[in-house]
Amino acid sequence: MSEQKKTRIRWFILSLLFVATTLLYIDRAALGIMAPYLQEQVGWTERQYGYITSSFMIGYAICFLLMGRFVDRAGARKGYAVSVGLWSVAQLAHSLVSSWVGFAVSRFGLSIGQSGNFPVSIKVVAEWFPKKERALAVGIFNGGANVGTMVAPLVIPAVVLFFDSWRAAFVWTFPVSLVWIVCWLKFYSGPGRNRRVNRAELDYILSDAEEATTEKVSYGKLLGVRATWAILAGKFIADPIWWFYLFWGAKYLHTRFGLNLSEIGLPFFTIYLASWGGGILLGWLSSRLLKTGSLNRGRKLSMLACAVCALPVMLAPHTESVWVAVALIALAAGGHCGWSANIFSLMSDVFPKKVTASISGLGGFAGAVGGFIAPILIGASLEGSGVDGYVIPFTVAAFGYLFALGVIHWLVPTVRPIKM
Question: Domain limits at 214?
Fold first, then answer.
């Protein structure tokens, strides 16, 4: 009898994660794209815009902890539907306000819903993919961050011009999100309960499965593990670098090269298309290294490769060419995407599936705290200094990953699964 051919439902589930992450970043990027226009229309000051941005980061930090626990208890199916529903309503609320306070409240609501995306996605990948495919899977769904960020500056201005209203920028994704929620609820269940998965694929998914357990693990117990602090350090140091590219990338290109809103689309598209491809490539490299070597060696060599990709970005403030700057930022952003894929995979390398969403929540909290602190320091660096002020942020962005890898290696000299 011939061997049964595996179904490939896990990749369809992964495509749903990718679409949701794309929608998340389109919604997240909308305010940054519209900020110069809204500043004139609504009349907020630079300081008030800082409050709006900070309200998102504060909410993101707090709710990452809450959402991680909620997802572990409610499950991925219900947890993701609630998460996307919350952020879709909050995004829609942006179109109903007319003051900086209203935007700050809407932004805080957006952070509540969006804080659930990555804890759910990591939990789903841990449930649906064996360890040797997880870095690649995370690299693919995390590519939605790049696709959403590069689609947003191309589509949102066109939508606003078509409807002749800035409010349209915050409305058009709402029906798309509703369709996604319906598809998720219809098609998602765990691999062992999904009737579309045949025995061959299920055996493959469970080829390195751990023993099932219903025991709950407290945050106190998780924080007593050195590997938890390695995850926190990796996110706290690296995530603010991504926020820097996302929230200051357009401002840097405008300050350094004079690009306006209508001209920023192509450079941003190029940066995030290249970084998405780089993230997938580095995720593939990680999977390749894991197949040919030890888990510890493969994971850390992959993270080292990501860190090396970020080093040339220190030259960005010194170049006279906009496209050289774009290439340097794209390479560094690709390194970050690969780094994120490996950090997320490191969570499932070390921790059992029952706590992956909680660990992801703790990591997201650490990254959001770093993302809250970094804008204050970046603003101080840029205050009254023009282009020269970008030297320090880009230098930190270049060396941050190497420093983070050193901290991770010190805390976790050998990557291996732990029992809790």
Answer: 9-411
